[in-house]
Amino acid sequence: MMTSRKTVSAVLNHYDPINGPKYMNLSAAEVHSYKWTPVPVEITDIRSCDEDFTLDKNGFQLVEHKVDLSACADDASIREKLYPQLEEMLKRVTGATHAKASAHMVRESTIADLKARAERADSPLEVLPPGPATNVHVDKPHPFPLHSHS
């Protein structure tokens, strides 16, 4: 039985690469004060058409995987308990013989809290706790290591 695709209209905040630097590494306070370009988009909930997306064809796919949430209590628990679960799931789905989880970010602040803290900050470079993403971005360490031998 074919399920109809579910979409939602949204506005995503994009960085304008023509009028700015090629790469950006902004603190949370800077992200909230940066001038983003709003772009209206239609977002498809791929749970309504997950069979259409495969790792080979799209570079991603939706995988059902139950996670032990007690593994998410703090950064150490995430590394010690959740990383191995995710590595095993990645190997199972891809057929890989090795997988390495290497970074995570827990977003737990609200946008209102981050804005209030940014206004009270002594410096625009003050590091604030991660909150909901307010712009289109890629979360990755810079520079990202291509190989890890641990």
TrEMBL record:
Keyword Oxidoreductase on entry: yes
Entry's Gene Ontology molecular function annotations: oxidoreductase activity
InterPro entries according to UniProt: AsaB-like
Swiss-Prot/TrEMBL keywords: Oxidoreductase
Disordered: annotated span: 122-150
Organism superkingdom: Eukaryota
TM spans (from-to): none
Family: Belongs to the asaB hydroxylase/desaturase family.
Entry protein name: Oxidoreductase
Biological source species: Passalora fulva
